[in-house]
Design a protein that fits this description.
Blueprint: E1 4-10, E2 15-18, H1 30-40, E3 45-49, H2 50-59, H3 63-68, H4 70-78, E4 81-84, E5 96-99, H5 103-113, E6 118-121, H6 124-132, E7 138-143, E8 151-153, E9 164-172, E10 177-184
Parallel strand pairs: 1-6, 1-7, 3-4, 3-6, 4-5
Antiparallel strand pairs: 2-8, 7-10, 9-10
């Protein structure tokens, strides 16, 4: 049985995206970039909601991504990817499967049928649904040193309390970023 982990970068006031889906406030260099290189090498199945998937699919296969972030781009493009969407019908990002319909049951089956771990990247709506269904085992949160005036909370719309136990923390001192690893209680 595999583990399902989420990875989300957030502001100090808990937003994973600003107004108009903006994530440009997240720094993409320094120690956080090294962490991204290492994390992308894990060979996990990547899980996305449609909005995050479309943003990622428009960037990672591009020449710009290969130039700016060669290791992450290579790993993102070769990884097995699943996008959960009832509206998306096709994609040309290689190694991608579209999952539609009753995703909660399908994710339960996926966790039981694969030995590969699964990582949700961003994908707030999906994160909330899977948190409510108690399917996420671990939450990795990268806390960026910025507060936004407006945005969307990482757990926007969650229906029940989510209790977490801190497993580890790491400070990227030069970037001012804190990486927090939690497991669901």
């Amino acid at each position: 049985m595999s583990k399902l982990t989420s990875f989300t970068f957030i502001t100090v006031n808990g937003f994973f995206k600003g107004q108009n889906e903006d994530t440009s406030w997240h720094p993409h260099g320094g120690e956080a970039a090294k962490f991204a290189n290492d994390a992308s090498s894990a060979d996990n199945i990547l899980l996305f909601g449609r909005k995050t998937f479309e943003m990622m699919a428009s960037f990672w296969p591009s020449p710009m991504a290969a130039e700016l972030f060669p290791i992450v781009a290579e790993n993102m493009n070769k990884s097995q990817k699943i996008v959960c969407s009832n509206t998306l019908k096709e994609t040309d990002w290689k190694n991608t499967t579209i999952m539609s319909g009753e995703i909660i049951e399908q994710i339960k089956q996926l966790k039981q049928s694969t030995t590969k771990n699964i990582t949700i990247l961003g994908s707030g709506s999906l994160l909330t649904q899977l948190s409510d269904a108690r399917l996420i085992d671990n939450y990795t949160i990268m806390l960026d040193p910025i507060a936004l005036g407006k945005g969307t909370s990482i757990f926007e719309g969650i229906k029940s309390n989510l209790e977490l136990k801190l497993l580890s923390s790491r400070v990227f001192e030069k970037d001012g970023i804190v990486l927090l690893n939690y497991e669901r209680k």
